[in-house]
Write a structure and sequence with these properties.
Elements lengths: L1 H15 L1 H10 L16 H9 L6 E2 L16 H10 L14 H12 L4 H4 L3 E6 L1 H16 L5 E5 L3 H9 L4 E5 L1 E2 L4 E2 L1 H10 L5 E5 L12 H14 L2 E6 L9 H4 L1 H8 L5 E5 L12 E6 L3 H18 L6 H10 L2 H31 L7 H5 L4 E3 L4 H11 L1 E2 L5 E3 L8 H12 L3
Parallel strand pairs: 1-12, 3-4, 3-7, 7-8, 8-9
Antiparallel strand pairs: 2-10, 5-6, 9-10, 11-13
Subunit structure: Homodimer.
GO biological process, one term: amino acid metabolic process
GO molecular function: L-aspartate:2-oxoglutarate aminotransferase activity; pyridoxal phosphate binding
Length: about 425
C-alpha cells in the first residue's frame, strides 16, 4: 500500500512538473552524443606524434620552444635567481583584474622605450594578460565590442592560432599578402597593395619581429613605408610581439617596427609575451597595451579591458608576473637576462648558418640562402607537405606540414642528420 502511494505521488509530481520529468529522461541518455572529436592542433599535434615515436633517431623541429645545444629545455639563470628571491614571499592573494602593476610598467618600457613620452603622459591602457594568446584574445574581444562592424586583416601565412582567436571573438577576417613562395622572402608589393586597397580605418595584425612561421621581416625602410601608408589610410596596427629579443638578440632592436609607428604618430595596440624570451612558457605571462589619445581615454579603455577580463579569467596568475617584475626591476638581473637572450638568439643564428652550409656541402640543387636570410626561431624551409611526410615516415623528423622548422630544435648533434634527410627528400625537386 505504501509503495503504491509512493508511485502515485511520484507520478503526480512528474505531471505537475514536466520539465523535471524531461530532465530526468534526458539525464539517462548522453548529453554529448552529437559532439565530434576536435581536429588535432597542427603544432601541438607534432609533439604528440614525436613523443609516441620509439625511434632513437627522432628529431623534433616542430615545437616553438627554445632548446639548448643538447636538445634540452632551458631555465634561464636570471629566472632561477628570481625564483630564489620569490620563494620566501608569503603573498598569495589575487592580483587586480589588470594584473601586476610593476610587471606591466616594466613590460611597457620594453615595447615603448625606457624614456617613452607615452608612458610619462600615462596615455597607455595596459593590463597583464595570459601570455600572447590571451593578449590577442582580449584585444579581439575589445575590438568586437567597441568596433562592432570592423574586421581584422591577417597576413598569409601567420601563426595558426591567430585565426582561431579572432574567429572565436566573432570578428570577421580578411587576409593580406606577406610571403613570396618563389623568393622565400617578403611580398612587399603585394602587402602594400592590400594595405592600400583595404577600406579606410581597417584593423591589421602585424608581427613586430621574427614573423611566425616565415622568419621574414620587413626592413626598417619598408616598415617606414608601411607606417606612412597606414597613416594615409587611417588604419589601426595591432602588433603581436611574441619574440622580442629572439630576432636580433637585442630586445630594443626587435621593437624597431613599433618605434617607427610611434614616431609617425599612430595609436597602436601591442601583445607582448614572456614565453620565449624568458622561457616562461607554462607561466602564461604577457601584456596587452593600447595607446590612447590622452590619460583620460587610457583610464577608460583600461577599465573596459578589465571588464572583459573579469568573466574570462577574473585575475591573471601571480607567479609569472613576480618573476618578470623581479628580473626587469633589478638592474643586475635585467643585465643578465639581456645576455642570456643574446646567447639564445646567437645559437639559433649559428644553427641557421650550419644548416645552410651542410645542405650546400651535400650538393643540393636548391638554393638555401633563405635559411640564413630569415630571422628568429623559425625557418620557412619551402618543403612541401609530401616532403615533410617523407621526413617523418623515413627519417623520424617532425615538423609542421607547412615546412616550418623550429631552429631552436636544431643542435650540433642533429644538424647533419637533418640536412642529409632534407637533401634526400628534395634532391630530385
Amino acid at each position: 500500500m505504501a509503495m503504491a502511494m509512493t508511485i502515485r505521488n511520484a507520478a503526480s509530481r512528474r505531471a505537475m512538473n514536466p520539465i523535471s520529468a524531461d530532465f530526468s529522461l534526458r539525464s539517462m541518455s548522453s548529453w554529448w552524443k552529437n559532439v565530434e572529436p576536435a581536429p588535432k592542433d597542427p603544432i601541438l599535434g607534432v609533439t604528440e606524434a614525436f613523443l609516441a615515436d620509439p625511434s632513437p633517431d627522432k628529431v623534433n623541429v616542430g615545437v616553438g620552444a627554445y632548446r639548448d645545444d643538447n636538445g634540452k629545455p632551458v631555465v634561464l639563470e636570471c629566472v632561477r635567481e628570481a625564483e630564489r628571491r620569490i620563494a620566501g614571499s608569503s603573498f598569495m592573494e589575487y592580483l587586480p583584474m589588470g594584473g601586476s602593476v610593476k610587471m606591466v610598467e616594466e613590460t611597457l618600457k620594453l615595447a615603448y622605450g625606457d624614456d617613452s613620452e607615452f608612458i610619462k603622459d600615462k596615455r597607455i591602457a595596459a593590463v597583464q594578460a595570459l601570455s600572447g594568446t590571451g593578449a590577442c584574445r582580449l584585444f579581439a574581444d575589445f575590438q568586437k565590442r567597441f568596433c562592432p562592424g570592423s574586421q581584422i586583416y591577417i597576413p598569409v601565412p601567420t601563426w595558426s592560432n591567430h585565426h582561431n582567436i579572432w574567429r572565436d571573438a566573432d570578428v570577421p577576417q580578411k587576409t593580406y599578402h606577406y610571403y613570396h613562395p618563389e623568393t622565400k622572402g617578403l611580398n612587399f608589393s603585394g602587402l602594400m597593395d592590400d594595405v592600400k586597397n583595404a577600406p579606410e580605418g581597417s584593423f591589421f595584425l602585424l608581427h613586430a619581429c621574427a614573423h611566425n612561421p616565415t622568419g621574414v621581416d620587413p626592413t626598417d625602410e619598408q616598415w617606414r613605408e608601411i607606417s606612412q601608408l597606414f597613416k594615409a589610410k587611417k588604419h589601426f596596427a595591432f602588433f603581436d610581439m611574441a619574440y622580442q629579443g629572439f630576432a636580433s638578440g637585442d630586445p630594443a632592436r626587435d621593437a624597431k617596427s613599433i618605434r617607427i609607428f610611434l614616431e609617425d604618430g599612430h595609436h597602436i595596440g601591442i601583445s607582448q609575451s614572456y614565453a620565449k624570451n624568458m622561457g616562461l612558457y607554462g607561466q602564461r605571462v604577457g601584456c596587452l597595451s593600447v595607446l590612447c589619445e590622452d590619460e583620460k581615454q587610457a583610464v577608460t579603455v583600461k577599465s573596459q579591458l578589465q571588464q572583459l577580463a573579469r568573466p574570462m579569467y577574473s585575475n591573471p596568475p601571480l607567479h609569472g608576473a613576480q618573476i618578470v617584475s623581479t628580473i626587469l626591476g633589478d638592474p643586475e638581473l635585467k643585465s643578465l637576462w639581456l645576455k642570456e637572450v643574446k646567447i639564445m638568439a646567437d645559437r639559433i643564428i649559428g644553427m641557421r648558418t650550419t644548416l645552410r652550409e651542410s645542405l650546400e656541402k651535400l650538393g643540393s640543387p636548391l638554393s638555401w640562402e633563405h635559411v640564413t636570410k630569415q630571422i628568429g626561431m623559425f625557418c620557412y624551409s619551402g618543403l612541401t607537405p609530401k616532403q615533410v611526410d617523407r621526413l617523418t615516415s623515413e627519417y623520424h623528423i617532425y615538423m609542421t606540414r607547412n615546412g616550418r622548422i623550429s631552429m631552436a630544435g636544431v643542435t650540433t648533434g642533429n644538424v647533419g642528420y637533418l640536412a642529409n634527410a632534407i637533401h634526400e627528400v628534395t634532391k630530385s625537386s
